[in-house]
Amino acid sequence: MEQLEKKIVLVKYFLIAGLLLFIAGLLFSGKNSSADIEQVAQKVEQSIDMGSLSRADNRMVKRLYGLNANDYEGVALYVSDSNMKVEEILIVKLADNAQTEEVQSAVQGRLDRQLDSFEGYGPQQCALLEDHVLDTAGNYILYAVHQDAAAADQAFRKSL
Amino acid sequence: MIFSSVFFMFVFLPIVLLVYFLVPKRLKNLVIFLFSLVFYAWGEPVYIVLMLFSIVYNYVAGIEIAYHKKWKDERWTKITFWMAVGVNLGMLGFFKYYGFLLENLNAILPFKIPFRELPLPIGISFYTFQTLSYIIDVYRDKVNVQRNLISFGAYISMFPQLIAGPIVRYADVEEQLENRRISLAKFGDGVTWFLCGLGKKVLLANNIGMAYDSIAALPAGSLSAATAWIGCAAYTFQIYFDFSGYSDMAIGLGKMFGFDFMRNFQYPYTSASITDFWRRWHISLGSWFREYVYIPLGGNRVDRRRHIRNILVVWMLTGLWHGAAWKFLVWGLYYGLLLLLEKYLLKNVLEHVPGFFKHIYTMFFVMIGWVIFASPDLAAGLSYLGAMFGFGAGLWDATAVYYLSSYLILFILLILCSGPYPYKKFCAYCYSARKKRWGAALVFYLLIFVLSTAYLVNATYNPFLYFRF
Question: What are the pLDDT digits (tens) for B71-83?
Answer without folding.
Answer: 888 898 999 999 9
